[in-house]
Amino acid sequence: MTDVLGYRAKFGVLGPSTNTTVQPEMEAMRPAGVTNHYSRIIVDNANALSDETFLKGTQLIDQGTIDAVKGVMTCAPDYLVMGMSAITFYGGAKGAETWQHNINQVSGVKSSIGSVSVVEAMKTIGGIKRVAFLSPYYPVANTEVRNFLSDYGIESVADHPFRAPTWTAIAEISNHRVREVIKQMDNDSVDAILQVGTNLSMAKLAGTLELELGKPVIAINTATYWHALRSFGISDKISGYGRLLEEY
Asked: For 9-114+222-235, CATH number?
C-alpha cells in the first residue's frame, strides 16, 4: 500500500526543539508527493552561550538525537533528513561518517546530514575550492567546520560566527545582518559562500545573493534537503532557493 499524500517519499526530518527554521524552510521546498514528518530533539533553550557552553549544548542535542530518530521511525519514513548541523562537522570527515553510520544503523534507513550535503553540493556545482562561511555558532564550532572542509580539500578563507546568545536567538538573526556579513567576507578569491547552522534562516536569501554576487551561495537547509531528494531519486527542479535546487 502507498501513503496517499507521501506517495513518492515520506521524509523524517529531525531538528532541535528550539529550532524554528528547519521545519518551515524544508516544508517550503517540498515537492508534490513528498511529505515531511518533523521530530524534535528535546533540548533546553541555553542562555549566555560561550565556546564551552556551545559545545556542551550541541553535545546535549547529540545525546537526544537517537530518541528523536526512534520517535519518527514510528511513522515508517523512507529516509531521514537531519536538520541539525554543528555536530555533523565535529571530528572531520571521519567523525561525520561515524555519526551518520550510527543514525542509519538505529533507523534502518538512509539519511542526509548537513556537513556531507554541503560538500556534495559544492562537488556538484563544481569549481569550488575556496569558501567564506558564516554560522550562528561560536568560534570553537567554526574551527570544526574549517577542519571538516579541509578534509575535502576546501579552504576556508574567511568565516564569521554570529555568537547567538540563545538557541532561539539564532532564528532572530535578520537577513539584513546576514547580507552585511556576506558582503564583508566576499572578494574575488572566494569561489562560493557557505552558510551553516540550521536555525539561521537563509534558504530564500541565498538565491537572491547568488544573483547579486555572481557566485554560488549555499544555505545548509537547502543543501541538506536537496541531497535528500536527489539521494532518494527525486529530481524535481525547485525555484526560489538558488541554483542548487533549480539546476542540479
From this structure: 3.40.50.12500
Q: In what order do the strands lie in the sheet with 155-161?
A: 155-161, 130-135, 192-195, 217-219
Q: Give the CATH architecture of domain 117-220.
A: 3-Layer(aba) Sandwich (3.40)
- 21-75 pLDDT, tens digit each: 999 999 999 999 999 999 999 999 977 678 888 878 888 888 899 999 999 999 9
pTM of the model: 0.96
The whole-number pLDDT of residue 62 equals: 83
Dist. CA 220–CA 192, nearest whole Å: 13
Nearest partner of 15 among 104, 84, 88, judged by Cα: 84
Q: Where in the chain is the domain with CATH 3.40.50.12500?
A: 9-114+222-235, 117-220
